[in-house]
Amino acid sequence: MLTVRERGNGSTRLDRRHPDGAAWTRGNDVRPLVHGAVYFAELLRAIRAQRSGDLLLFTDWRGDPDERLDGPGTEISTVLGEAAGRGVIVKGLVWRSHLDRFQFSESENRHLGEELEEAGAECLLDMRVRPGGSHHQKLVVLRHPGRPGLDVAYIGGIDLCHSRNDDASHRGDPQAVPFASAYAPRPPWHDVQLAVRGPAVGDLEATFRERWEDPSPLSRSPLVRLREVMHHEDTSAGELPPQLPDPGPCGDHTVQVLRTYPNRLLRGYPFAPDGERSIARSYLKALRRARSLIYLEDQYLWSPNVVGFFARALHENPGLRLMAVIPSVPEQDGRLTLPMNLVGRVTALERLRRGGGGRVAVYGLENTAGAPVYVHAKVCLIDDVWASVGSDNINLRSWTHDSELNCVVLDDRADPRAPRDPGGLGDQARRFARDLRLELSHEHLGGPGDEGPSPVSGPDGLCDPAKAFDAFAASAAALDAWYEGGRRGPRPPGRLRAYHPPGMSRLARGLAMPPYRLLVDPDGRPARLRRHNAY
Fold first, then answer.
1. CB–CB of 454/442 below 8 Å?
2. H/E run at residue 294
3. Are 402 and 134 in contact (CB under 8 A)?
4. Contact 141, 210 (CB under 8 A)
5. Is residue 477 predicted with pLDDT exceeding 70?
6. Each residue's pLDDT tens digit, 34-93
7. Long-range contacts of 265-270 (CB under 8 A, 24+ apart)
8. 237 pLDDT tier (thresholds 50, 70, 90)
């Protein structure tokens, strides 16, 4: 965990609010919710249990009002509007994006805000970001005065929008967004959210309140401000009720809430006037301690500057392995966007393999019908001890430029299944991180609908890092060989495919070579807009 000083942001209330002066809270209960369908179903039940005087707070990158949480009648705007109608205080912040011609989310977010306003809720469109940046935090906080046992916060990679409502079968969300042609019409989607109970709920609520209470205008764009005046739009934030005391201890998990905020030009955030890089700083601290296994699930795994820290850890620790699960194909087609995505990916993987060689393994996912699965999860597990789940991706903009929100979870309980051999993790491994890795691994190695037995007889077979590394390699090799052999015989179990970048044009290959790669920012901004802040 980072200390208060290591967070590097003395202006936030996040650490000052703890009576013991710690930069984290103890006694939490954290559960991973793998897949949007699991998260949405639980979120629906929790919201419908709220009553008059309760509080519902949310932040989002994109919100689609018609996205169903669990079938007809559970559209997000309907569920939140019904809560407001029962007297629940509903407040939301969603990103007011760039122009829709760039396929962002301004119109969808505006529609969500308008529908919630009509129902008596309050949802603000927030563009208090650096140029080219976004608010990428994904958070829902539910508080219940007089019933603190029901208090819960949901944080992770899942937006309240189209394409996210998929399950372990990976048949995709019927309400899908336009996607690259390599994917099915309903793109299969893999994602992870956390359900947090205990004192950390107060820290996550405080994060929302800091943004909500920022007195800066929601946008500095003259055109946006003019439109607000012409349409008589009230963009001032209403008052929030005083924050309740934090829920009491209820579990064995220590949780630290981490953020990225950019050093915003001209006028900084009052709660982070010089920005905050605690997500990046936490990664760097954890990577310096990595010895056995780094397990990643990430949407991008871009940016050589960021990946370089992982490569350094691999170079300095000969027993360290890295396994990553990423999208097989970028989400966008196009003569420009596809090569730009691949330039970032290829250069990052080159950096990793220079650091770790054969100790680096990268995989894509497919469903049992052979359609690629889009990996949107943002998970990092180090040595089955340190677990980070949130909205940030392994790329430069998530570490410096966009607003992001993560939780690091350390379990106070050792895992009794820890292997005793010197090459394993021994008594060091903790249950939360290991259980999450095993849950994800078993889905990828042999999920529902797969033919034949899983290549690992039971969960203990994957506890050892070397065996887990080999099991992924064997599963992917078997499936790849089945395709290369003309798909004769039963399909091997598992969802893993060895990652090979799609073919690039001559132009893209040229951009991937120095010195041209210096002119390209694989995070999607011109190189001149990059700002290399100290982590």
1. yes
2. strand 293-297
3. yes
4. no
5. yes
6. 999 999 999 999 999 999 999 999 999 988 899 999 999 999 999 999 999 999 999 999
7. 265/130, 265/131, 266/220, 267/216, 269/128, 269/210, 269/214, 269/216, 270/11, 270/210, 270/214, 270/215, 270/216
8. confident
